[in-house]
Amino acid sequence: MSQQFSQAVLERSDFAVIARWIKPKTKVLDLGCGDGALLGYLRDTLQVSGYGIENDDANVLACIKNGINVVQMNLEDGLSGFEAQSFDVVILSQTLQAVYQTERIVQEMLRVGKEVIVTFPNFAYWKHRLHILGGNMPVSDDLPHQWYNTPNVHMCTIHDFDEFCASHGIRISERLVMTNGNKISWLPNLLGSLAMYRFEPR
Question: Which of 58, 81, 102, 112 is 20 to 30 Å from 168 at the Cα level?
Protein backbone atom coordinates (compact mmCIF):
# COMPACT_ATOMS: atom_id res chain seq x y z
CA MET A 1 0.00 0.00 0.00
CA SER A 2 1.34 3.41 -0.95
CA GLN A 3 2.54 5.81 1.73
CA GLN A 4 -0.02 8.36 0.56
CA PHE A 5 -2.95 6.01 1.12
CA SER A 6 -1.52 4.88 4.48
CA GLN A 7 -1.31 8.52 5.58
CA ALA A 8 -4.92 9.11 4.49
CA VAL A 9 -6.09 6.27 6.73
CA LEU A 10 -4.22 7.80 9.68
CA GLU A 11 -5.88 11.17 9.03
CA ARG A 12 -9.38 9.77 8.44
CA SER A 13 -10.50 7.33 11.12
CA ASP A 14 -13.62 6.45 9.15
CA PHE A 15 -11.52 4.92 6.35
CA ALA A 16 -10.38 1.99 8.50
CA VAL A 17 -13.94 1.31 9.68
CA ILE A 18 -15.27 1.44 6.11
CA ALA A 19 -12.62 -1.10 5.13
CA ARG A 20 -13.81 -3.43 7.91
CA TRP A 21 -17.35 -3.17 6.59
CA ILE A 22 -16.43 -4.13 3.01
CA LYS A 23 -15.73 -7.65 1.80
CA PRO A 24 -12.68 -8.31 -0.39
CA LYS A 25 -13.02 -8.12 -4.17
CA THR A 26 -16.35 -6.32 -4.11
CA LYS A 27 -17.47 -3.60 -6.51
CA VAL A 28 -17.54 -0.15 -4.90
CA LEU A 29 -18.81 3.29 -5.92
CA ASP A 30 -17.36 6.18 -3.89
CA LEU A 31 -19.36 9.41 -4.19
CA GLY A 32 -17.44 12.63 -3.70
CA CYS A 33 -14.23 10.61 -3.71
CA GLY A 34 -11.82 13.55 -3.47
CA ASP A 35 -8.33 12.53 -4.57
CA GLY A 36 -9.28 8.84 -4.51
CA ALA A 37 -7.49 8.02 -1.25
CA LEU A 38 -10.28 5.79 0.10
CA LEU A 39 -10.66 3.85 -3.14
CA GLY A 40 -6.90 3.50 -3.38
CA TYR A 41 -6.76 2.14 0.16
CA LEU A 42 -9.61 -0.31 -0.50
CA ARG A 43 -8.02 -1.40 -3.77
CA ASP A 44 -4.64 -2.02 -2.18
CA THR A 45 -5.94 -3.79 0.94
CA LEU A 46 -9.09 -5.56 -0.25
CA GLN A 47 -8.63 -5.77 -4.03
CA VAL A 48 -11.93 -3.97 -4.60
CA SER A 49 -12.85 -2.61 -8.01
CA GLY A 50 -15.09 0.29 -8.87
CA TYR A 51 -15.30 3.99 -9.52
CA GLY A 52 -15.10 7.31 -7.79
CA ILE A 53 -17.45 10.19 -8.55
CA GLU A 54 -15.91 13.63 -8.26
CA ASN A 55 -16.70 17.09 -9.64
CA ASP A 56 -13.61 19.09 -8.69
CA ASP A 57 -11.04 19.33 -11.51
CA ALA A 58 -8.00 19.11 -9.24
CA ASN A 59 -9.35 16.05 -7.44
CA VAL A 60 -10.19 14.33 -10.72
CA LEU A 61 -6.62 14.86 -11.90
CA ALA A 62 -5.33 13.52 -8.56
CA CYS A 63 -7.48 10.40 -8.98
CA ILE A 64 -6.10 9.80 -12.45
CA LYS A 65 -2.56 10.30 -11.17
CA ASN A 66 -3.27 7.79 -8.39
CA GLY A 67 -4.62 5.23 -10.83
CA ILE A 68 -8.21 5.54 -9.61
CA ASN A 69 -11.13 5.02 -12.00
CA VAL A 70 -13.01 8.30 -11.73
CA VAL A 71 -16.07 9.80 -13.40
CA GLN A 72 -16.32 13.60 -13.34
CA MET A 73 -19.89 14.59 -12.58
CA ASN A 74 -22.01 16.56 -10.14
CA LEU A 75 -23.74 14.38 -7.55
CA GLU A 76 -26.70 16.74 -7.63
CA ASP A 77 -27.45 15.42 -11.13
CA GLY A 78 -28.14 11.96 -9.71
CA LEU A 79 -26.77 8.56 -10.68
CA SER A 80 -28.93 7.84 -13.71
CA GLY A 81 -25.90 6.57 -15.62
CA PHE A 82 -25.65 3.56 -13.29
CA GLU A 83 -28.00 0.57 -13.36
CA ALA A 84 -29.93 -0.62 -10.33
CA GLN A 85 -27.95 -2.81 -7.92
CA SER A 86 -24.83 -2.47 -10.08
CA PHE A 87 -22.47 -2.02 -7.09
CA ASP A 88 -21.99 -4.12 -3.98
CA VAL A 89 -21.37 -1.00 -1.87
CA VAL A 90 -21.97 2.71 -2.45
CA ILE A 91 -20.07 5.07 -0.13
CA LEU A 92 -20.73 8.69 0.80
CA SER A 93 -17.91 9.56 3.19
CA GLN A 94 -18.15 12.95 4.95
CA THR A 95 -19.93 14.42 1.94
CA LEU A 96 -23.59 14.19 3.03
CA GLN A 97 -23.46 17.64 4.65
CA ALA A 98 -22.13 19.21 1.44
CA VAL A 99 -24.98 18.18 -0.90
CA TYR A 100 -28.22 20.02 -1.54
CA GLN A 101 -30.52 17.18 -2.62
CA THR A 102 -29.95 14.86 0.32
CA GLU A 103 -33.09 12.76 -0.12
CA ARG A 104 -32.52 12.22 -3.82
CA ILE A 105 -28.89 11.25 -3.40
CA VAL A 106 -29.61 8.75 -0.61
CA GLN A 107 -32.42 7.22 -2.67
CA GLU A 108 -30.11 6.94 -5.68
CA MET A 109 -27.46 5.28 -3.53
CA LEU A 110 -30.02 2.72 -2.40
CA ARG A 111 -31.03 2.14 -6.01
CA VAL A 112 -27.57 1.45 -7.43
CA GLY A 113 -26.02 -0.23 -4.37
CA LYS A 114 -26.74 -3.49 -2.58
CA GLU A 115 -25.42 -1.80 0.55
CA VAL A 116 -24.80 1.84 1.46
CA ILE A 117 -22.25 3.41 3.81
CA VAL A 118 -22.67 7.02 4.92
CA THR A 119 -20.42 8.96 7.29
CA PHE A 120 -20.83 12.56 8.45
CA PRO A 121 -19.70 14.95 11.20
CA ASN A 122 -22.18 15.20 14.07
CA PHE A 123 -23.25 18.80 14.49
CA ALA A 124 -24.57 18.04 18.00
CA TYR A 125 -21.12 17.06 19.33
CA TRP A 126 -20.56 18.82 22.66
CA LYS A 127 -17.60 20.88 21.46
CA HIS A 128 -19.69 22.16 18.56
CA ARG A 129 -22.43 23.11 21.01
CA LEU A 130 -19.93 25.08 23.07
CA HIS A 131 -18.86 27.04 19.98
CA ILE A 132 -22.49 27.96 19.32
CA LEU A 133 -23.11 28.88 22.97
CA GLY A 134 -20.08 31.12 22.69
CA GLY A 135 -21.66 32.85 19.71
CA ASN A 136 -19.65 31.25 16.89
CA MET A 137 -20.16 28.57 14.30
CA PRO A 138 -18.15 25.46 15.23
CA VAL A 139 -14.71 24.74 13.79
CA SER A 140 -13.07 21.38 14.52
CA ASP A 141 -11.14 18.52 12.91
CA ASP A 142 -14.40 17.18 11.48
CA LEU A 143 -15.70 20.67 10.60
CA PRO A 144 -12.49 22.42 9.59
CA HIS A 145 -13.93 25.35 7.62
CA GLN A 146 -14.96 28.82 8.69
CA TRP A 147 -18.59 29.81 8.23
CA TYR A 148 -17.75 31.95 5.17
CA ASN A 149 -15.82 29.32 3.19
CA THR A 150 -17.47 26.08 4.24
CA PRO A 151 -18.77 23.68 1.56
CA ASN A 152 -21.31 22.37 4.08
CA VAL A 153 -24.93 23.24 3.35
CA HIS A 154 -26.94 20.70 5.41
CA MET A 155 -25.49 20.10 8.84
CA CYS A 156 -27.25 17.34 10.76
CA THR A 157 -27.03 15.44 14.02
CA ILE A 158 -27.14 11.73 14.75
CA HIS A 159 -30.72 12.11 15.99
CA ASP A 160 -31.63 13.91 12.76
CA PHE A 161 -30.22 11.14 10.59
CA ASP A 162 -31.87 8.39 12.68
CA GLU A 163 -35.21 10.15 12.16
CA PHE A 164 -34.48 10.59 8.45
CA CYS A 165 -33.87 6.85 8.06
CA ALA A 166 -37.01 5.97 10.04
CA SER A 167 -39.22 8.33 8.04
CA HIS A 168 -37.85 7.05 4.71
CA GLY A 169 -38.13 3.36 5.52
CA ILE A 170 -34.35 2.83 5.59
CA ARG A 171 -33.24 -0.17 7.64
CA ILE A 172 -30.00 0.59 9.47
CA SER A 173 -27.87 -2.54 9.72
CA GLU A 174 -25.08 -0.94 11.76
CA ARG A 175 -24.25 2.42 13.31
CA LEU A 176 -20.91 3.43 14.76
CA VAL A 177 -20.16 6.75 16.47
CA MET A 178 -16.58 7.86 17.08
CA THR A 179 -14.49 10.67 18.54
CA ASN A 180 -10.78 10.81 17.75
CA GLY A 181 -10.98 7.26 16.41
CA ASN A 182 -12.54 5.88 19.61
CA LYS A 183 -15.97 4.25 19.69
CA ILE A 184 -18.64 6.19 21.61
CA SER A 185 -21.48 4.13 23.08
CA TRP A 186 -22.80 6.40 25.85
CA LEU A 187 -24.68 9.56 24.81
CA PRO A 188 -23.41 9.32 21.21
CA ASN A 189 -25.31 12.39 19.98
CA LEU A 190 -23.54 14.49 22.61
CA LEU A 191 -20.13 12.84 22.84
CA GLY A 192 -19.62 11.60 19.28
CA SER A 193 -17.98 13.79 16.64
CA LEU A 194 -18.35 11.43 13.65
CA ALA A 195 -21.25 9.14 12.72
CA MET A 196 -21.01 6.10 10.44
CA TYR A 197 -23.98 4.15 9.08
CA ARG A 198 -24.51 0.99 7.06
CA PHE A 199 -27.90 0.37 5.49
CA GLU A 200 -29.46 -1.43 2.57
CA PRO A 201 -32.60 -1.33 0.43
CA ARG A 202 -35.66 -2.99 1.95
Answer: 81
Domain count, the chain: 1
Rounded to the nearest 5°, which phi and psi values hold at 174? -160, 140
At 1-20, the pLDDT tens digits run 555 665 666 667 788 899 99
Whole-structure pTM value = 0.89
CATH number of the structural domain spanning residue 194: 3.40.50.150
Residue 108 has pLDDT above 70, yes or no: yes
